[in-house]
Amino acid sequence: MKIGILTDSTCDLPENILKKYEINVIPLNVSLDKKQYKDQVDISSIDFFDKIKKSNELPTTSQPSAGEFGEIYSKLDEKYDHILSIHLSKHLSGTIQSAKLALQNNPKLNVTIVDSKSASMGLGFLVILAAKLLKSNYKLEEIVNKLKKAREETQVFLTVDNLSFLQKGGRINKAESFIGNLINLKPILKLDYNSTSVEPIDKVRGNKKTHKKFLNYIDNYIDKNEPKDIYWFGLLYGEFEYAKEFKENFEDHLNSKNINYKYFKNNVGPVIGSHTGPSVYGIILFKGGKYLDE
Amino acid sequence: MAQNDIIKSIDGKLFKKMCYGALNRLKDQQSYIDSLNVFPVPDGDTGTNMLLTFQEAVENLDQVRSDRIDKLTQGLSKGALMGARGNSGVILSQLLRGFSEANKTKKVMSNEDLIKSLSMAAKIAYQGVLKPVEGTILTVSRKAAKRAEDLKDIEDTDKLLKKVIESAHKALNKTPDQLPQLKEAGVVDAGGQGYLTILEGMREGLTGKIEVTEEKVVKKEVSEDEVDLKYGYCTQTLINVKDKSVEIDDIKNDIEQFGDSLMVVGDEEIIKIHIHTNHPGIILEYALKTGSLKDIKIDNMKLQNAEMREKHEMKQKEEYEEMKEQSTEDYDEKLIINSKVKDLNRQTAIIAVAKGKGIKNILMELGVDLIIDGGQSMNPSINDFVEAIEKIEQDRIIVLPNNKNIISAAQQASSLSDKNIIIVETKAIPQAIAALLVFNDQDDLDNIKENMEAEIKKVKTIEITYAVKNSKVNGYDIKENDVLGLVNGTIKAVGNSELDVIEEIIESDWEDEDLITIYYGDGASEDDAEKIKNKFTDKSSDAEIEIYKGGQPLYPYIISLE
After folding, report:
1. Substitution target from A179, A183, A213 for chain B, most B beta carbons within 10 A
2. What ipTM, to 2 d.p.?
3. What is the pTM of this model?
4. In 3D, which of A121, A93, A87, A114 has the Cα closest to residue A14?
């Protein structure tokens, strides 16, 4: 059985990886100053952040329509026997809902939808894992089971200079988002299997302390009782300058750990960027190697 | 007084006279007692705190509609408890509670009751202090009580008191031998002196040696002599504001350099300025930029006599208070409720004590529900805390006193309330800011306290202030107006300039820090703060440094290192 993988543009995986693993991508939509763009297709992150800065408005985003899903599913259906459709958490977007609707409209399609319960590279890592498992000739059912286990241990931590993007986009709960703007506070936000929104879990003053918090999350994530080579780490960022200093600390810290790991870094796409603003950066913690034989 | 006229017991009327006597003595000695504070920082003014506490005690005594001793001592005790300010005030309130406890069901205080009162006072005062230190007011009270125990055979109450006072005095004179800090500074304990003063005043009231007026409010004495006026013209005007974004504080900052007795009050539409200055013209020109003027009044104060001046000041104060009540946003209010937090429907409320608009704003942005105006030299009373606690809807409350001399008043207030109150013993504003970052509304109160206290330990606080008097502390020979640099409450540098003092602290106390925050207060500008920032950058080029306008009085800089 030939299985194809579809994800959405919020997976924030670089072009070469998408190509290497033959991963298909359906774009979400982003709109700024009354113009509509297909995420990562019509507009790149760099251009998008430039535009945000010049605009007085905040961007808005929308899921792909059921029609768009139907179209792409039909196209992939010709090429594959089955489609594994892995997407952004249903708590953060209606993308999965559109996908389900497309299946209702066309019951003949052979599609399995998996909710990553994550976003950005948290979704991306799950997609890479699926592609690797596929290459190792695992059966569909086995792959889906492994993905469902892996997503339980996926953790995303991020920080932003101010919460206005997240607040306006409604991806953060109001009481939790109460935070001073008078004093330079960095909120640390978490997204994991149990999150129903991006949750603020810490407030930190200053960059150095923020970095220390992140490194601390990594230390807590590394489990001495598990093999040393299962870890995948990701660095995500909006505009790179915000993440520059942290990148050094992050990489040094990983090197100082007695583990083998895979390391990916990429900027977030316009859709994720719409909800975080350009100042975002963060880490993705994933135990991908736990599910592979290599 | 004839020999057979001796007083053998104290009735209600006499007890009141004794209290008035004590209040008057305390009033006379206030500055002297303040001057005994070892720490020359503008804080912990023992004389002021004891006077304010005793004053409220006497005011409450006057409300008692009975001449029974039990009722009167109870009234005195209750008043002191509510009015207690600072550590010395809290201990005084405990001493007075001893008097009340010892006289339950008594109509008249016999000598035996008086002896019992002194013992009970000392006993309760000791119980009220977590770690009693000898060489303080506690010791003086204990020695006085002990002496009294041996005087059961004395018939003459005055003689009894006289002997007790002699012992108290002796005990007080020995305090420098018990506390090395006192010896170094060459003073006796301030709180002990306060208690002695009260006992002396009581004796004076007892024998009627002094004219005791039943005046409730202690008035500061105004010298009748020709006052040397630094600023000659009292200048006032109302401004019809044209730009509604004008801030009262900005006006204050702009014109305070031109004089003193500055008052600026008002709202978005009308602002009143009052200042004593030598340049009324500059003030009016400045006011013109803000809007159109009305009711301009300029008086040459040198031509006024003392009485007129006093009247004028009183009137000003009244007007000021009146306008202050009307103005919408006033950061000098005793209690400020943070309306933004109210919408969050939190389970736990936070009360903090603070001074300075900038600092208050930061604390409120970080989630403080209610701010009690106060801090160094302005210790809120137990009653202020009680009022604040009553204003809070929630039953779970966290209190951040932000000053070591305010913690005990907060604790007393918390013991008077049925609410579930936790006091996180913050001794400086940076500690409160650090603690607020780990606040978790849903968490167990004990956990919140534990988490907050863990954060407090990670912050180092540097405070820069000016010596209010000459003193010898920690081996420093401090002169009035010297710049003092404190690290976590301990004097670590003394000098002539703020910059030098900070540099000295940086050199001696440097640890690699992640974040340095400079809160500049009254008398410092952002430019000054930048210069201080540079001192830190010289030491460590990659230090992360933030500057905020705190607006706190008396401390030009509060700096946190964490």
Report:
1. A183
2. 0.84
3. 0.77
4. A121
